[in-house]
């Protein structure tokens, strides 16, 4: 099962990647796009790979003064950037996309090595960045509002969208770069400047992106302060959330974090875009194409080692096919190739750290105390190649939806099998019966069932798929979820509007001054 990597020239490979992407042994605490700051005298954090425990590099952690410096630089840059025509801003983003294409393999490898997802998924993540750049380039010519007819003669009404200012982006470890690009590339064409605080667990991919961006900014003779990076932990995120100079904070991470950010931003009546935890389910009805469904279930449940916000956590199966599905899954799970994420035969890499492993083990223990039955997996792997203690065997548990652990998002590969009987409505009720509302899916070839799932009394999630699993969204649609997932939308469709302020304009081209609603207000002179 385990693929050894001794044969891989890994050290050389990683050294080359770090060199190509400008990662130093010790990296400064912040960048304003052109200038790096915070070179010494800061606390440091050493980043090790969850794949093999080796040190990759060290980062300096920004302090409050660094943060303030970055905000001030960004404020100045905004004055220039907002005056740059949107299609010209789009041209800069186009060049960033091209530069990402050039560095796709190297950045994909670093994503894989720093975060632990397999190389194929690392490449996919960089491809998402490229895709959103392409999308943003087109968008830069389409930041349009509606026009309306006025009730008053010779009057015209329309709506326009203006840049907001500084957009703060707080990102999670599991999509260390894609989530930033979803926000940053749209915000940039909208005329905003961006301050990015990557996860403290995966800051090196952020440093790499900043080096890539720097090349483009330099070539275009742009000022510093448009794309900023600040490396820090929750404290820096908290400064951002409380800071009135940051009109929009886009935060991706746990619901616990989102509540704190939402409260702080809300208290100052700022805007927040929250992308938080999910508890995603696939419904398998009696009419499901099981061959298709099984592939989607396994990818959704164990891909990225269960560390996607859209990972499949619950499988709601009709009682008539329950035993068959269970049997098929129990055949597949023991043979899943677990190993080093840069080994091309691996499908499942490690969890991000030992805390995540403990959360996995604790969840399995608790769900069994509640009455759940562990059917397979759950072990923490040890021995040759698994010395880091971060590799686990994905687990399947028979459970009931109301169990406390089933109601929680455990960010690890645990799949809960839940049985339903009767009509699809019963399955939908179970699927909606959690606090989170990110992604959902149904596998069925019955139009009646799939349309019920998509109807206004169907899935209550931000994403509802038919005959496709819960994970692996495309950038063209708006991405986000309801309930405790936070309600935010980013990426495609009209998600760009959150990065702009909206203005309604009424223009009078007559020589009269009629008031709306026919109000008479004549001044006698
Ligand atoms: P996390 O909440 O621990 O951290 C996320 C980010 O928030 C980090 O940058 C962290 O430094 C920052 N942060 C933490 N506390 C903060 C505070 N009080 N104020 C400001 N910033 C703070 O999450 P994680 O472990 O990195 O990521 C996993 C979680 O992210 C999962 O719950 C997953 O579902 C969620 N996620 C959601 C989406 C989505 O689009 N809905 C996408 C990816 C990940």
Care to describe what's here?
Belongs to the aldehyde dehydrogenase family. One of its GO terms (molecular function) is aldehyde dehydrogenase (NAD+) activity. InterPro entries: Ald_DH/histidinol_DH, Ald_DH_C, Ald_DH_CS_GLU, Ald_DH_N, Aldehyde_DH_dom, ALDH7A1-like. Its EC number is 1.2.1.3. Homotetramer. The protein has about 525 residues and is an alpha/beta fold. The chain folds into two domains: about 10-275 and about 490-500, Aldehyde Dehydrogenase, Chain A, domain 1; about 280-475, Aldehyde Dehydrogenase, Chain A, domain 2, CATH 3.40.309. About 35% of the residues lie in helices and about 20% in strands. The chain is built from 15 helices and 24 strands. The chain has helices spanning about 10-20, 65-80, 85-100, 105-115, 120-140, 180-190, 205-220, 235-240, 255-265, 290-300, 320-330, 355-370, 405, 425-430, 445-455, and strands spanning about 25, 30, 35, 45-50, 55-60, 145-150, 155-165, 165-170, 195, 225-230, 250, 270-275, 280-285, 310-320, 375, 395-400, 415-420, 435, 440-445, 465, 480, 480-485, 490, 500-510. Strands 3-2-10-9-8-11-12 form a seven-stranded mixed sheet, sandwiched between helices. Strand 11 (about 250), helix 9 and strand 12 form a beta-alpha-beta unit. Helix 5 (about 120-140) packs parallel to helix 6 (about 180-190). The N and C termini lie far apart (about 95 Å). About 50% of the residues are buried. The model is unreliable at about 1-5 (pLDDT under 50).
């Amino acid at each position: 099962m385990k693929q050894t990597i001794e044969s891989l020239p890994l050290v050389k490979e990683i050294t080359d990647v770090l060199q190509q992407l400008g990662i130093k042994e010790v990296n400064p605490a912040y960048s304003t796009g052109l200038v790096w700051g915070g070179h010494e005298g800061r606390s440091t954090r050493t980043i090790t790979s969850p794949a093999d425990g080796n040190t990759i590099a060290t980062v300096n952690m920004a302090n409050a003064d660094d943060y303030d410096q970055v905000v001030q630089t960004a404020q100045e840059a905004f004055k220039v950037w907002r005056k740059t025509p949107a299609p010209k801003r789009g041209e800069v983003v186009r060049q960033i996309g091209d530069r990402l294409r050039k560095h796709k393999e190297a950045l994909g490898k670093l994503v894989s090595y720093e975060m632990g997802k397999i190389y194929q998924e690392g490449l996919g993540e960089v491809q998402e960045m490229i895709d959103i750049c392409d999308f943003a380039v087109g968008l830069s010519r389409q930041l349009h509002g509606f026009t309306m007819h006025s009730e008053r003669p010779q009057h015209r009404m329309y709506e326009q969208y203006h840049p907001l200012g500084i957009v703060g982006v707080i990102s999670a470890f599991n999509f260390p770069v894609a989530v930033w690009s979803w926000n940053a590339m749209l915000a940039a064409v909208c005329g905003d400047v961006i301050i990015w605080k990557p996860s403290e667990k995966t800051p090196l991919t952020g440093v790499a992106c900043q080096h890539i961006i720097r090349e483009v900014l330099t070539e275009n003779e742009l000022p510093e302060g448009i794309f900023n990076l600040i490396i820090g932990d929750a404290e820096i995120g908290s400064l951002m959330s409380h800071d009135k100079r940051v009109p929009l904070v886009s935060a991706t991470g746990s619901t616990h974090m989102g509540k704190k950010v939402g409260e702080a931003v809300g208290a100052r009546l700022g805007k927040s875009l929250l992308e938080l935890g999910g508890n995603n389910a696939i419904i398998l009805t009696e009419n499901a194409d099981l061959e298709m469904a099984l592939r989607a279930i396994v990818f959704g449940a164990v891909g990225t080692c269960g560390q996607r916000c859209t990972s499949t956590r619950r499988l709601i199966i009709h009682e008539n096919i329950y035993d068959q599905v269970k049997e098929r899954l129990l055949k597949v799970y023991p043979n899943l190739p677990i190993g080093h994420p840069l080994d091309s035969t691996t499908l499942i890499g490690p969890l991000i750290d030992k805390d995540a492993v403990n959360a996995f083990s604790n969840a399995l223990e608790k769900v069994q105390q509640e009455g759940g039955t562990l059917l397979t997996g759950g072990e923490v792997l040890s021995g040759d190649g698994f010395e880091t203690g971060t590799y686990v065997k994905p687990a399947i548990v028979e459970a009931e939806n109301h169990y406390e652990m089933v109601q929680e998002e455990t960010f690890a590969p645990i799949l809960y099998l839940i049985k339903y009987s009767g009509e699809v409505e019963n399955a939908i009720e179970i699927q909606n019966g959690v606090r989170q509302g990110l992604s959902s899916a149904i596998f069925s070839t019955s139009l009646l069932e799939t349309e019920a799932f998509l109807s206004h009394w169907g899935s209550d999630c931000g994403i509802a798929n038919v005959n496709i699993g819960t994970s692996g969204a495309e950038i063209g649609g708006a991405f986000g979820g309801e309930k405790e997932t936070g309600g935010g939308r980013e990426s495609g469709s009209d998600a760009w509007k959150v990065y702009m302020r909206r203005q309604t304009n009424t223009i009078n081209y007559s020589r009269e001054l009629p008031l709306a609603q026919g109000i008479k207000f004549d001044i006698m002179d």
